[in-house]
Amino acid sequence: MAQVDATDLDAEGLAQLLLDAEAPVVIRGAMPGWQTGSYPQLLAAHAETPVEVITSGGTFRGEATEEQPIAWGDFPLSMRNGSVPESAYIFYELGGIDAAGGSFELAGAAVSEEAKRLVAALPGLGDWLGPVMRKQNEAYPRANGRLLISAGSWGNGRPFHAHGPALFALVSGVKHWYVRRPNASFEWQRFEIARGALAESVTLPSGWEAELWQCAQSEGELVWVPDLHHHATLNFDHDTVGFTMVIDDLAPLTPLHYAAQSDDAAEVRALIAQGEAVDTPAGGGATPLHYAAGLGNCNALEALVDGAADVDAKSKAGESPLHLAVGGGHERAAALLVKRGASLVAVGQHGSTALQIAERLEMRSMASMLRRAEEKSEL
């Protein structure tokens, strides 16, 4: 990953650099007041801050089936005495962010006073996150910020996911980051980082060096992940704790995007009949058809195309729905797009056609289908 020395920039300059970035960035030297060993003092001083701990249903937030309230200060002790499982994990929203007045504060009626005091006690955190939030609102006035606390032990983390741009500050431990490169293979959706018997670093499958950015983040450092970049994290210390500012609603999903995600053809048709614009882009320029194709949701895909969706719409990365269907290994979806007129010669950001992606990923059946379609189109 790219690295920036924050000591060479003021907060406004760093904020602009991050918002202009098209790739993840590691920021060193951002919180010089944060010294090794500060975390125990912070925890002791703010032990009563209420959070929710995920106790069952998986290590990760998206898979959680049971959460229970806990005081932050009780979490490390509960982990050590076995009153919560080793996989217990905190990924909890402390509250919304108000940076409009020039200071960085938690806002909202539901925000606890303990949470406000905790955030105010983090040295330098608001100095860096505040300008990013303010500059983002200049470009996208509807953007909202929220602050989350994450805390877990060795081997905790999150699987690949995406959201709005985010700035993550680590106050304790070591966290490894894996961020999907633009136009890379979508095979990452099937890759699960091993979380048992961890070594000093994770060895990726052969060829993955060109697919993912990686870094190890240490306490006192920041990591910036741009809008809608899929990423995964993995803790490499028993007390790995951080605070994440996530910025939402830069280009929100439409009801059609959600229907495409859930493969709800009936809902797609109903929304189109009600006048919903079929090709409205969300973050990254992805239309509802991009979502259906990338997930292999053939029912929604056909309903969208029937509703006059552009089969050759390009995302900001230059990817068509066919690129995403092929990259995700969804042969039936790819075949449907080809049948409905999707271009076989369209190239993505890095100059690859759908067939070239299939060949590079050694998808023999997919490649054969695309070759046959090319041959037929040349007759």
Secondary structure topology:
Layout: E1 2-5, H1 11-20, E2 25-28, H2 38-45, E3 50-56, E4 66-71, H3 74-81, E5 89-98, E6 105-107, H4 113-121, H5 125-139, E7 144-152, E8 157-161, E9 166-172, E10 174-180, E11 212-218, E12 222-225, E13 231-235, E14 240-248, H6 255-261, H7 265-273, H8 288-295, H9 298-306, H10 321-327, H11 331-339, H12 354-360, H13 364-378
Parallel strand pairs: 1-2
Antiparallel strand pairs: 2-12, 3-4, 3-5, 5-6, 5-7, 7-14, 8-13, 9-12, 9-14, 10-11, 10-13
Helix pairs in contact: 1-5, 6-7, 6-8, 7-9, 8-9, 8-10, 10-11, 10-12, 11-13, 12-13
Write structural notes for this entry.
- The chain has 379 residues and is α+β, with helices and mostly antiparallel strands.
- It folds into two domains: 2-248, Cupin (Jelly Rolls), CATH 2.60.120; 255-378, Serine Threonine Protein Phosphatase 5, Tetratricopeptide repeat.
- It is 32% helix and 23% strand.
- Strands 1, 2, 3, 4, 5, 6, 7, 9, 12 and 14 form a ten-stranded mixed beta sheet that branches.
- The longest helix has 15 residues, at 125-139.
- Residues 57-62 have low confidence and may be disordered.
